[in-house]
């Protein structure tokens, strides 16, 4: 079975629901991928809440400590996709 | 008496009869009540069905989207009220040293609506569905924390929890901090727990009105007193040392000149209730005599036993019909911690406008021998006001609010 792919658009939707967005972040600009979450104004709880929503929606389990240390959106997207690929292989 | 005088230089209000200090004060002086049937949820299955609900508060109009997933309704209103209070005081917090500014709020319920929603998810969907923000969004201290973070205030912060009395206890704590050297404190309270879980909790006091008639449900000091109507909202006030306020040329509404707090004796001991003593301590602290008090904002519990205690305390201090007494909270319901800061805002505007706001719907029992300011606001020379607040479980607090310009008069 082909793995589902988690994209910047998916992350954007979930982050905005979980922790809001607003003036200071342009999620439509791909530069956001390599901007640190801290610089984007998302602290560890925002990442935990975002991670929790990803886990529920995609049926995967992320490590809480790894989540709160996740440096950038790109790192989070890659981590989620690695979990999705692993899940697809075991089906 | 020691240290700097603490003055009020700004106010922000969210009340059932008006959002924003101007709207609320106009409604209050006009006798406009905000009490009605609960609309936030269906109250038909509960004994009490009326409440004072803050109208027209849309959080997204006042706060950035980042704050919405992590805040209860009471915190959203508190953040907006704090913004308005700072603007009213002409303070830009970004321009002041972070450690010179602090926050003290009171709370009686915490973020009940937020908590209810997350607990519902916990038991219906499981722990993984509970918001990470539940970790703080329902705490008593959350309003102080969020106000300090939003405004970059790194000075002393805290919360006091003593039900309705807490609204005055917070202002007193702010005065303590100012005397210890913090230039500015955001102080006051906004409470809101008009959700099914909060509603059930409030019923347990046995003191809520079950009347469904908005004009007859909350009648303090009336022969028909039948308990109180709860409400949501309150006020945040900017308190500064008189010196700091003077230095920056601030408009000063008035001073927190005196404060007293007591606990009632345990039931069955036969000792007298302690409200009168709290008021006497506050007068002594302010260095004023009863004869100098121009108005009393009453706690107004609207249960015959508690009304009698309050009427006796006022009579003992001021004599029969000895001072104008008012309870504008008859237009809002009792706002728990939010009630007394709102009454203090009312006292400050009564001093500004030389006008005592009215008590609506109620007719004082003649036996209480109170000079109740009923139905119409009363023009009067108002320089000194006593505010009373009692909390469930025996808390009594009293504050003396005095016109600006006398901050140093009573200093020894």
From TrEMBL, chain A:
SUPFAM superfamilies according to UniProt: ACP-like
Keyword Translocase carried by entry: no
Keywords: Phosphopantetheine, Phosphoprotein
Phosphoprotein listed as a keyword: yes
Domain Carrier: 2-84
Top-level taxon: Bacteria
InterPro entries given in the database record: ACP-like_sf, PP-bd_ACP, Ppantetheine_attach_site
Name of the molecule in the record: Acyl carrier protein
Species: Streptomyces gossypii
